[in-house]
Design goal:
This protein is mainly β. It is built from 1 helix and 19 strands. The longest helix is centred in the C-terminal third of the chain and has 4 residues. The radius of gyration is 36 Å and the shape is rod-shaped.
Amino acid sequence: MCNIEKCQGLPLVADMETSSMISCLGVKIEFEVEPKNISFEHILLYRKDFRILTLANKSLVPLIWHFLGVETIQDDFTVSDTEGLLMPLNKQEVRFDFSADEVKPYFKRQLKLEVFDEEGRGESLFTETITLSAEAIDVMVDVLFGNEGVDYIDFGKVKVGNEYQQPFQLRNKGKYDIVCKVEVEVPTETSVPRLDEMISVLPHTGTVVHGEKPFQMLLATSLTSDRPTEQRRCGYGWCVVRQLCTLQVS
């Protein structure tokens, strides 16, 4: 409202009144990170694995985020995203990859997550420390035969229809227990039919604990041929250990 009055000998005076609407919406910042500890446990040499970190903006306003210290983990891990804008009530997944390119003892690395308003002003609204841990290991298994310096099993002369057994051992020189499976593979050029059915491993699976105590196994044969025969290096054993690592054992 504006009232103007003219007074004798005085200049014009304006008496003005104004009004305006002021509103304010208060928002509570809610930001979640899951998980805070990313563990790759132990990964076999030359293998790769990944983990997912989930960022959740549970606020009603957009938020920007970024990692601090990415350069300190780049020799060990790769990160799909290092910063971003997260809209209200949305989630974002960040992928961490680890490659076991060389044997590495157990180690930890840390990243700091900072969250700001959409303009990136002032101090961070939310912070969290992300811990990453991993270990790159190798499988070291020795195959011990009956005679030192011999890398095969010799049954010698056997009688058709009788069963014969020869022992051998697996020694786990690694850091962790492994699960093994031994299978017999017969070359296609062998002259004895169904030779794979005549040779078996007892037991064919088992857990080989780490340490000096070897795992005892038996290679058994029972020939059913109707005529004398001679075979040299006729079968090969394959030891399949945890996480699909394979090695020839005889």
